[in-house]
Automatic annotation (TrEMBL):
Extent of the signal sequence: none
Name of this protein: Acetyltransferase (GNAT) domain-containing protein
Domain N-acetyltransferase residues, every copy: 3-148
PANTHER family: AMINOALKYLPHOSPHONATE N-ACETYLTRANSFERASE-RELATED-RELATED
SUPFAM superfamilies in alphabetical order: Acyl-CoA N-acyltransferases (Nat)
Source organism, top-level taxon: Bacteria
InterPro entries: Acyl_CoA_acyltransferase (IPR016181), Bact_Acetyltransf (IPR050832), GNAT_dom (IPR000182)
Keyword annotations of the record: Acyltransferase, Transferase
A GO MF term: acyltransferase activity, transferring groups other than amino-acyl groups
Keyword Acyltransferase: yes
Length: 157
């Protein structure tokens, strides 16, 4: 198995959206994302300005994504295709997003994980050092991590 991670370009927003809308947990359609103001144009603009997206490729298949926004200091998205879960892609993609935020000098980072009991992402983030910070108004669980605790890998640019 060969795994690579690349920085996504604004032209690759369709790949980001295809992976985002293919997950089982915290699934959303493009229409549901648009209802939250998350459109292809918004994501492309984020990548042109304060954001960076990473795409994990396994043996020629784009299998997972992470997106971080330095202006907000958050991990905006982190998703892996169901057939590629359990291969360490989530950990790898999160490390790249954390390293990007660390390199931009954010004081602390935050992310939200789906609402409801039994969400696997909650345990995943806690295991990787993210601290629960209560519920967001939409019911999602907020996690935080200090700049010092963020992964500091070389994220390929």
């Amino acid at each position: 198995m060969t795994t690579t991670v690349r920085i996504a370009t604004p032209d690759e927003v369709p790949i980001l959206n295809a992976i985002r809308t293919s997950v089982r947990e915290n699934h959303m359609t493009l229409e549901q994302m648009a209802d939250y103001g998350i459109t292809p144009e918004v994501i492309a603009n984020l990548l042109r300005t304060t954001g960076r997206a990473f795409i994990a490729n396994v043996d020629g298949v784009d299998a997972g994504i992470s997106i971080a926004d330095s202006a907000e200091g958050n991990i905006f998205a982190m998703f892996v295709l169901p057939d590629y879960e359990g291969l360490g892609l989530g950990r790898l993609l999160l490390a790249h997003a954390e390293a990007f935020l660390h390199a931009t000098g954010v004081a602390s980072a935050w992310l939200e994980a789906g609402a409801g009991p039994g969400i696997r992402a909650h345990g995943f983030y806690a295991h990787l050092g993210w601290q629960s910070d209560g519920l967001m108004p939409d019911g999602q669980l907020r996690f935080v991590k200090s700049r010092a605790a963020l992964t500091q890998i070389v994220a390929g640019g």
